[in-house]
Amino acid sequence: MKSYILKRILSLIPVLLIVSIVVFMIIHLTPGDPAAVILGPEASHEDVKQLQEELGLNDPVYQQYFHWVEGVFQGNLGDSFFMDKPVTEAILEHLGPTISLAILSQITAILIALPLGIMAARKRGTATDQTFMGLSLLGISIPHFLFGLFLIIILAINLRWLPVAGYKPLSAGFWEHIKYLIMPAIALGTGQAALIARMTRSSMVETLNLNFIKTARSKGLHERKVIYKHTLRNAFIPILTVIGQTFGTLVAGAAVTETVFNIPGIGQLIINSVERRDYMVIQGTVLMVTLTYVLINLLVDLLYGVIDPRVRLKKES
Amino acid sequence: MEVAVEKRRELSDFRRDINRERRRLFVRRFFSNKLTVTGSVIILLTLLVTLLGPLLSSYTPYEMVVTSRLKAPSADHLFGTDNLGRDLFARVVYGARASMGVGLSVAIITSVLGMIIGLYSAYYKVLDHVLMRICDGLMAFPAILLAIALMAALGTKIDNVIIALAAVFTPYVARVVRSAALVVREQTYIEAMKAQGASSMRIIWGHIAPNTLSPLIVYSTFIFADAIIIEAGLSFLGVGVPAPDPSWGNILFDGKLVIFNAWWMTFFPGVAIILSVLGLNLFGDGLRDLLDPHTNHAKK
């Protein structure tokens, strides 16, 4: 197991190398001089020159890269031009809403997906199964942000049940906090639920066909025990993978949904920085989010061994 | 000598018959599969609307009439008008060109690039290490995030949307082609061809490539769908297809500004996105069932 963990962690090195190069190149892919782009068309020649100097843009590219990576290892992602503060500080300020939203969406997704997926697997081939699967296909085909817009029109504008958009931190009270996050969580959660439900169904169907389930049934075990204790546990690895992956996308890919609901999270930070051409923030945020995404996937991978002893043994041998 | 020629002709006739029979069977199964049929009908309709756009509407998508701003759907304006008094039907129909166009271009470009990268890395071990690490690195990014970052770097232009999305999705396609190609590469007949001295060019393109086509086609249908979703997201954020050209995403962007009094500006482009993506997903799912014997087996 130890050697597996080590191998898995070592395999991240080339991935992170590529990630860092791509993120670093964002500023250099911009057509024209980055300093001039950042300062805008009204900037004087001297200002541009000075910024070039400050950013080290006159150094050879590889030197700039090493300089940047060095900074990253020291926890220094540079400073935001627009907000006049370190990028790390800006990220920390925007982290709370994104995490709250991700957790709430994930709970929504699992609550919808697992029961539906299990039910579809138990009734496979029937009309119930087909309806659920049709719904999940629809769930995959609706972009989250679009579903969010539809929810706003129905739940907030017509029925006036929930606030249209905005965000209140947890310190404003639990209900206040949740109230603003219900619609975005449903919007994000249902799409993820569709993916998780599909995987739950197919993994359950596969396990239900195995012999030990037949044995469990023929020895007279209660159906509920067969489903939850025997089938679900054995079918859980692929389900967990999808849950892990979707959590990664929730932390990372909620950008558009955050914009729809005006939630001051990481996604909004990125979008605002793109509009302001605040490249240091774009680079820093994209890097941090991607690192989180990679780490979550690593964690999920390592969790397999904990959940399923078979994986642990297979990897050891 | 004559006998040999005769035998060879018989063999080629036999092969032709088998291929014809296979094709006939595939066509029959294609049309008896509900998913593929529904999917293709939706996609064909969407493509038809995309191509016939100008003939379907008497308005242009750019013409602003200040007096008829935010009119609800009526016989005159089928989908209503937008906040600048432009006919929404015309904008949604013309918007299909941007949205479907980006999706299709991305699907085609990623298929070609992904195929080349996938095939060569499956065939040459050294290339494999380098190319697959690059793919892993690119796939480590959440798709929409990489797309936003690339758009920030390249600038908002429809061509750049295509470039950014191609960069995002090519690694996924390359992976799919590579894993299909790896299976073929291990077959004995490839071994035999190498022994006969066939060039690697001929082995790769003549014998391995055709065997990777079915997973590739299925996968690029999903890429087509995903590209439509991400393009809509980018344009909705204002970093995709720039105004005044309509795309479904940037109509939604305008619609968000007036969401309190004009539901139709969100509803119609929204339905267009859902329908086209759903059509492609249905088609892809059905096609996968048809082409992949494993899923057929699992279904039983």
TrEMBL record, chain A:
GO molecular function, a single term: dipeptide transmembrane transporter activity
Compartments, record wording: Cell membrane
Cellular component GO terms, alphabetical: plasma membrane
Domain of life: Bacteria
Ranges for domain ABC transmembrane type-1: 95-304
Alphabetical UniProt keywords: Cell membrane, Membrane, Transmembrane, Transmembrane helix, Transport
Keyword field contains Transport: yes
Membrane topology, record value: Multi-pass membrane protein
Record field: transmembrane: 9-29, 99-120, 132-157, 177-197, 235-261, 281-307
Recorded family membership: Belongs to the binding-protein-dependent transport system permease family.
Name under which the protein is recorded: ABC transporter permease
Species per Swiss-Prot/TrEMBL record: Neobacillus rhizophilus
TrEMBL record, chain B:
CDD domains linked to this entry: TM_PBP2
Record-level GO BP terms: transmembrane transport
Membrane topology: Multi-pass membrane protein
TM region positions: 30-56, 98-122, 134-155, 161-184, 262-283
Signal peptide location: none
Subcellular location: Cell membrane
Major site of localization recorded for this protein: membrane
Protein's UniProt keywords contain Disulfide bond: no
One of the record's GO cellular component terms: plasma membrane
Domain annotation ABC transmembrane type-1: ranges: 100-284
Keywords carried by this UniProt record: Cell membrane, Membrane, Transmembrane, Transmembrane helix, Transport
Domain of life according to the entry: Bacteria
Family in the record: Belongs to the binding-protein-dependent transport system permease family.
Protein name per its UniProtKB record: ABC transporter permease
